[in-house]
Specification:
D-amino Acid Aminotransferase, Chain A, domain 1, 3 domains, seven-stranded mixed sheet, five-stranded antiparallel sheet, 10 helices, 16 strands
C-alpha cells in the first residue's frame, strides 16, 4: 500500500514563490511507486488549498487562478488519523476526506522555517520531515542561532545585533559598534533568507538608511563584518542527532557584492517558466578546495547541524577569508532552496533517494516519540469540589 505524503508549500513569506519552486522540484522527485503525493498550497493569506493538478510550476503563474481552480481545505486529527477535508461541505464530494500519512513542509521563511508550521504539525500528531519546533526556530533567527553556535565554540565573523526601531535612541552606541567592526558591513534581517532585505554598507553615512530598509522586513537586525577577499562554500547535512553525514561542497559564484536573490533564483536563465531554484545558482561543484579544508568544513557542518538540533536535510553556508584561510560559519538553512538535492549527487544519492531517506527519518522519529512520556493518565481535578480562591496550589 502506498504512503500518502502531504507536501505543504507557499505561505505568506516573501519567499513564497521560492517555496513553490522547491516544492515542485521535490514533487517530481518523489517515487510514485511508493507514495501518493497530496499537494497542499498555503496562500499568502495563510489559507490552505488542494488540487491534484498542483504539481506543475505552470499552474502557479497566476496565484488568483490557483485558488479559484482548487478546493479550500483543512487538516484534522480524528481517532489518531490525520485527514485533509474540504471546507465546502458538499454531500457528493467523493474526493474527501484524504488520509495523510506524513507531511513534508517546504515553506521557506516566515511560518515555514521558524517553527510555526512545525508546531501545527506537532499538534496534529502527524509525522513530518525536517527540524522540530525548537531547531527550526533557532535556525531561522540569526541572532539566536549565532549565540547557540558561539556557545558551542564554532567560528563566526565579528557581529552584533539590534532592534531596528531602537536606532534613533541608541544611534551613538550602534555607530560605535559598527566602527569597531570596521566597514564595510552587512545588515541582515534576522529571520529571513534568500538574501531578501540584505544591505551592504560601505561607511557610517550609509548605515541609517540601510537599517531603515532592512527594518521593512524584520524588527531584529544582524550587522556583520564583511570579509573582503571572500570565498563562499556550502555543505549539506542529512540525518538527525542519531546519525548524520555531510555532502560534497560547492563554491558559490556571485555577480554582486553579496550573493543576491537575483544570483540565487533568477540568474541568467531566459527560459520562461524555468523552475530550477537554487539548483540554477552559478557554482563550482565540487568546490576546488584542498583535502584539509574540505574535511574541516564537513566536520564543522556536522557540528553546526548537531548544535542547532537539526534533522532532515539542511544546508550550512561557510565563508573562507582568503587572506588568511580562516573558515567562518555563516548560517544554517533548515529548509534549503531546492532541498539542496544537487549537493548529494556526488555521494550517489539522487533526488528520489534523498526524498526516500527524509520520509524514513520522519516515520522513525514519530515511532521514537510514541515511546516517550508526554502526559500522565490521570486527572487531579476529578475529585475537586471546592472553590478556586486560595485552593489551587497543587
Amino acid at each position: 500500500m502506498k504512503i500518502n505524503v502531504g507536501v505543504i508549500f507557499g505561505g505568506e513569506s516573501v519567499e513564497h514563490e521560492i517555496s513553490i519552486i522547491s516544492a515542485m522540484q521535490a514533487i517530481k522527485a518523489i517515487d510514485e511507486s511508493k507514495y501518493n503525493v497530496i499537494p497542499i498550497y498555503v496562500s499568502k493569506k495563510r489559507n490552505l488549498y488542494y488540487s491534484p493538478t498542483m504539481t506543475e510550476i505552470k499552474e502557479f503563474t497566476n496565484l488568483d487562478e490557483v485558488k479559484k481552480n482548487s478546493e479550500a481545505v483543512y487538516l484534522i486529527n480524528e481517532d489518531d488519523k490525520v485527514t485533509l477535508r474540504s471546507i465546502n461541505k458538499k454531500w457528493l464530494n467523493k474526493k474527501f476526506p484524504i488520509t495523510i500519512d506524513l507531511i513534508i513542509p517546504i515553506m521557506h521563511g516566515t511560518n515555514g522555517e521558524d517553527g510555526a508550521i512545525q508546531g501545527y504539525l506537532e499538534m496534529l500528531r502527524v509525522p513530518y520531515v525536517g527540524c522540530d519546533v525548537i531547531a527550526a526556530g533557532v535556525g531561522q533567527d540569526k541572532v539566536i542561532m549565532k549565540y547557540v553556535l558561539q556557545g558551542n565554540g564554532l567560528p563566526l565573523c565579528d557581529w552584533f545585533w539590534l532592534y531596528g526601531n531602537e536606532y534613533n535612541e541608541r544611534k551613538e552606541q550602534i555607530l560605535s559598534q559598527a566602527n569597531k567592526l570596521g566597514y564595510p558591513v552587512i545588515i541582515k534581517p534576522a529571520c529571513l533568507g534568500s538574501s531578501i532585505g540584505i544591505q551592504f554598507v560601505h561607511d557610517s553615512s550609509e548605515l541609517e538608511n540601510a537599517i531603515k530598509e532592512a527594518s521593512k522586513y524584520d524588527r531584529k537586525l544582524v550587522i556583520e563584518k564583511v570579509i573582503n577577499d571572500l570565498e563562499e562554500i556550502n555543505c549539506s547535512v542529512l540525518g538527525d542527532s542519531f546519525s548524520c553525514l555531510a555532502s560534497s561542497l560547492e563554491k558559490v559564484l556571485k555577480n554582486e557584492e553579496i550573493l543576491s536573490y537575483q544570483d540565487k533564483y533568477v540568474g541568467s536563465s531566459k527560459s520562461k517558466g524555468s523552475a530550477k531554484g537554487m539548483a540554477a545558482t552559478r557554482r563550482i561543484y565540487p568546490a576546488p578546495l584542498d583535502q584539509q579544508q574540505t574535511t574541516k568544513i564537513k566536520q564543522l557542518a556536522v557540528e553546526v547541524f548537531k548544535a542547532v538540533g537539526a534533522s532532515g536535510v539542511c544546508r550550512i553556508d561557510f565563508m573562507i577569508d582568503k587572506a588568511n584561510d580562516k573558515i567562518y560559519v555563516n548560517e544554517i538553512n533548515t529548509i534549503p532552496g531546492s532541498l539542496a538535492f544537487y549537493l548529494w549527487e556526488d555521494s550517489g544519492i539522487n533526488f528520489t533517494a534523498l526524498m526516500d531517506r527524509l520520509f524514513k527519518q520522519a516515520i522513525d522519529r514519530e515511532r521514537r516519540k510514541e515511546k516517550m512520556i508526554y502526559s500522565y493518565d490521570t486527572n487531579i481535578l476529578a475529585g475537586y469540589s471546592g472553590g478556586l480562591k486560595g485552593k489551587a496550589k497543587g
